[in-house]
Amino acid sequence: MKRVIIPALMLLSMSAGAQTFENKFTRPLSDVLNDVSARFGIRLKYNVDTTGLKLAYADFRVRPYSLEETLNNILSPFDFKAVKQNDKLYKIKPYEYPRRQPEDGQKMISWLTSLYSNKTEWEARRDTLRKEVRERLGIDKLLPLCSKEKPEYSKIRKFDGYTVQNFRLKTANGHTVCGSIYAPTSKGKHPLIICPNGHFSNGRYGKVQQLRLGTLARMGAICVDYDLWGWGESADEVGSKAHQTPEAHVMQALNGIRILDWMIQRKDVDTKRIGVNGGSGGGTQTVLLTVLDDRFTAANPVVSVSSWFDGGCPCESGMPIQLAGGGTCNAELAAMFAPKPMMLVSDGGDWTSTTPELEYPYLQRIYGFYGATDKVSNIHLPKERHDFGDNKRNAVYKFFIDTFKLDASKLDESKVTIEDENALRFTPKK
After folding, report:
1. pTM of structure
2. Which one of 23, 76, 263, 270 is separated from 341 by 20 to 30 angstroms, measured CA to CA?
């Protein structure tokens, strides 16, 4: 019998699961990622299911000199991405269009900086952005549909140096928005602060929200908060799932504008002192409201403004406003408020970690076009994480004390009465 000699390469191709040119050197994705973990000495945490997924040209995607390039090459065919948690841990997540990396923020800020070198060029860009943001949000189609009816009010509740009154206001297409007005007991005209909520525990019914608005009211400001779309009393009307829709992005902005429309008609409101302040998703709304409405005279977004994160909830990024002007970000949208007073509050534990060296200097440059760098400021808390804690609230108080001349002697959160949720829900006067 004639002996047949099979080349070693052919034997390899015949073995089960072999990597060959014919099968595009394919390997299971989970095996490839395990190898990457061992090679680079890192741990991988998974927010995706890799079961059954196979990767063509698997080992050829590895870059021995770069972990980041390796992970990007391996994960991009599946619309996955690796998010660095620390030097030894990466989280594998689905692609998120609103979320990028700090390095992307640096590139975005560099690109934006190249677009304008003086006030004239900046204002041309600003006007383009304002027009396109309104168009992409679709706000101008809804504003004419808003009801002209006055809001309904609940009974006024009196506390130490301030009052609280709930309201329900009709907006567009039969919808309503509910909220609460925290007002000083002192007489005369007062500054007004619109306070959109973030996604903190219990929304506008939470302790942190009540402490902030009650304290600001005690110091002399009228503060108004209102439900997120699909939260609280809004959820009773449209359901909680409505919050995770693009409609929430539009309606929350509409609600903020509509509330401002009727609040500035009050005889106790000083229309020259109109502020807006919110944290996290409420900070995103804060910036958007300043883009849409030039009646605001001071803005204080907290733990929100970033060049590499647009807000992960559809109520912040459900409509493609970041595509305006060929591409923008919340830092540039915040810059549109120049030269009016603005303070950013940032921390070391979220997407505002780069504020002191990236977003804040960028804003200072824009404010510099107006000779107003003193009108923009940043309080950075490097050891803190994403919340609306004591130090962040104290930064808010100081900003409005300085900007609106509030009474600092009344700064005492212990004087604020924390009500339960039922007390803050709207009940018509009898």
Report:
1. 0.90
2. 263
